[in-house]
Amino acid sequence: MRVAKVVDLSVVVDARTQVYPGDPVPDLRPATRIETHGYNVLALSLGSHTGTHVDAPYHFLEGGPRLEDLDLGLFVGPGVIADVRGHAPRTPVTWEELQPVADRLGPGAILAIRTGWAEERYGTPAYLDHPSLDPAACEEVLARGVRTIAIDALSPDPTADPTADFACHRLVLGAGGAICENLANLGAVDFPDPLFVLLPLRLGGDADGAPCRAAALRLEP
After folding, report:
1. SS3 breakdown of the chain: % helix, strand, coil, rounded to 5?
2. pLDDT tens for each residue of 190-205
3. Is 195 a domain residue?
4. What is residue 94's DSSP assignment?
5. How many CA atoms lie within 13 A of 22 on its CB side?
6. Which residues of 112-144 are buried (b: 16+ CB within 10 A; e: fewer)?
7. What is the number of structural domains in the chain?
8. Among residues 49, 53, 59, 130, which one is catalytic?
């Protein structure tokens, strides 16, 4: 097999990166410069859920697996893109809307929900008003063996909603799965059966998540 095409599904991490309300704003600044030290090095300050990133169960479950505990197989697998664009702000994505891809959902598959929010609203206040995944739909996806759910928004649950109980986070992470948030560029995946690669930084300790360089690969014999 060879890689015939690579589509970058990640947002750029810099001072302008939109973060979940209350999360650290990334700060990238020179630590050394060629003219003074002979080489360039950046000093990075950012949260574990900066930009395109993955959530480990420990993000919401006190006794849940940390990032280092997770099988890397959660982050690489056949990508299934559910195109649900056209939602009004803060409305749920239902199981009925996922029916067109239901027959492709199974163990090892990575479901990516394309709301269109990243394409149209990233970097604006309206990005916070993204659609969310209905918990009943999340349960149906998990029942088919999927353990990784991704979305082109800040979260599969409502953002900045004081009544939210983060049901989808608790369902996916409680099943030992992973969540990938802030995907970008899903519209550029114009080929069938992409291979998704969502590998996070290998953070040790009590890492509850980490930024990743997400990509969709087209494989050919």
Report:
1. 25, 25, 50
2. 999 999 999 999 999 9
3. yes
4. P
5. 3
6. bbbbbbbeebbeeeebbbbbbbbbebbebbbee
7. 1
8. 59
Whether residue 85 is contained in a domain is answered as: yes
Q: pLDDT tens-digit profile of 99-149?
A: 999 999 999 999 999 999 999 999 999 999 999 999 999 999 999 999 999
pLDDT at residue 164 is higher than 90: no
pLDDT above 90 (res 179):
yes
Question: Closest Cα partner for 177 from 68, 55, 86, 93?
Answer: 55
Mark 42-66 as b/e (b = at least 16 C-beta within 10 Å).
Answer: eeeebbbbbbbbbbbbbbbeeebeb
Residue 72 belongs to some domain of the structure: yes
Q: Is residue 36 part of a domain?
A: no
Task: Name the residue range of residue 210's domain.
Answer: 2-11+47-220
CA atoms within 13 A on the CB side of 91: 10
Element (H, E) at 190: none
Quote the tokens at residue 63.
């006794």
59 catalytic? Reply is yes
- CA 195 to CA 77: how far, in whole Å? 6
The continuous run of DSSP H or E covering 19 comes out as none
Q: CATH number of the domain at 173, please.
A: 3.50.30.50
